[in-house]
Fold this protein.
Amino acid sequence: MKDHAAPALPLRAPETVLRLARMGQMMPTRLSFLRVLVRQLCAERAKVRRIHWDMCDDGFGQAAYAIDLGGHTYSLVAISNDLPADQRSDRVIATAWDAAFVLFDGIATPDEIARIAAQAPKQEAGRFGPRDLVLSRANKSVRMWDATVAALKAGQQPDPQMIRDIGYLMRTTAVYGNGKFGIADRYLIADRPGLDGPFAAEMLAVYLIRHFTLDLVQHVGGVPLDPTLARHLGIGNATGLGMAPFLVNHPVLLHNWIQARETALARVLARRTMTEAQKDRLSTLSHRAQKHLADWHVPAEDHNAILRQLETDWAAFLPQIETATTFAALWDAAAGQTDTLQELLTALLIELCPEDVDDLAHEMADRHGPLSVPFADTDAVKSAIETHWGWALHCDYTNADNCRRFWYVSAAKLEPRLGDRFAEPGAELETPLDIARRVAQLHADLPDAAHPVSAFTETYPQHALAISRVALLNRYPYAEIRDNLIAATCRPIDMLRCKLSYFGATKFDPKSDLWTRITLAQGAPLGDELRPEMDDWWLPVMER
Amino acid sequence: MSWTEVQTLGVKAASGAGVPPAQALAFGAMLARHVADDGPQDAVKTALADPKRIVALAHRVETIVEAASVAAKPVAAVEEDAGTRAMLVSWLAGLPCKADLDVVGPKLRVRLALTEPSTRGRPERLYLTPELADQLNALAAKTYVPDSDASREGGAGAGLMELD
């Protein structure tokens, strides 16, 4: 029987959680999608099986792997290319990659492998079918790859410090799901056990890609990797702006993700007591976090300064963790700390109480789309805006810096980009991510006397989007980022960090305000280690 | 094509035709439902050629949803034009909520359960006529901003990039 007072404590307010500055500090948790997927694989004691291998000594050719999950079998088909160094680019405008992948629904037959081998290297220019679930590609970390191959060929193991510093052999530069380029729509698999969570198919592909990179390097090196080293090699990812608008364009998903995490935190904080086992675990994980931070250095000076401050602050906070008698007291002790430390503590507390948390993973998908109810009249719209959107109203959008940015889709790659409204062409084709400004404009145009909303939108059809967002927020309080996304100060990297933390990303390595590298699956059990006791890789550390 | 491809293309095409964002989003959902249910694709072509028709259709759906929100009884509507009627049906059937539709000649009876999710199935593949696909792609292209040096270097987030 649970001893927590199920969600009796109020959740943190959306106005606290959904500020970009805080979203930009979020950490992976046991509700992160890769964690959830690997936990399920561990529960099922799944095994990765190599079902096809046609690879030259240098590691170029084709491979396929199969894995069972929730009563279904899935295959990863991998195509490894001999890519000239001058063609290797992480940018979305690249046209060739070291490796291309498709997660396939079922056992991939030789015919299917041949079809995928012809299409996958083309990526966005290829065409795919409803049994292709995910499309991806990756480039080698040439430094890590070459060093690992050289060490293995010499009968040695790669340098552990290099593995700590880099953390992966390859990094993906896109992981496409949900109908892109003809692959299966998500609804075709959304009811399957194990794939019912958000991005679960994409995470399965990522996990299997990581397995492939380890398999491939051992093939080329000719010697097995030490499992401790192999486990600390995750899979990298380079992510740019394309991911940022997702959080705005999928408000119900954003709500579900944030609400699940906040509910988890509230449940843990509602526990009246801390068991001895929980105290031990709290101590172990808090010290592991300290070591993880010590291993986490990035070249960007501003981001590294935040990390170093967190490392210092966390070290100073450890005695309070060690002496805490309740979770709530520990949380209260962090009240005056930075957002960065509070978000790390949030992830730690969620990690400690799986029995309070893990069921929430089933509430993070959006199966239906928004189910909001229309307003009774324009006065109800006005009241809702004045109640929930004060942050949007208290902004002068005639100030150039408050509307300097505009989001758009580039003709070259059909990818989201961000421009300067006053310096670049294209603002007339702006993507409607300026939700705050739109709601403020709606508020200004609402009539003094109540009218039916449909009568208002007949005159002002351009306000229908803002009205729908206001209605959404009435039902889904965590559906909206509480910041002006067209302000000169808007940093898309904060949106990326939030979303990637929900994927389970670690070792965020921002390269600018617009893109970042991350590591996924570092510390995750290997393909033959998927057992329940192996689900212990939150903020992984490879001991010295 | 996948459902997502058709829906996304529909949103972009409506935007490219000059339809405001909320109505364009709803048009995309309508288009996928319409194609899935074998609705007449010529009617969509006609509507895209005159975006005011799309805005008017969106407004009509809004009034039906509004009426459904204040009374549990079915909402009645009449639409004499067969193409517009088919799109109206697809629009309502494509709503995320449960929608029971009864169509007899030009008359529609609509019962919406606004907080209950739709249970309509979706097929694996959708098929657009080449003519409609061409029109959708041409309109969608109007929403894209041509590349410039500034956008390539600054807007995409990648300036100098080291590879390791």
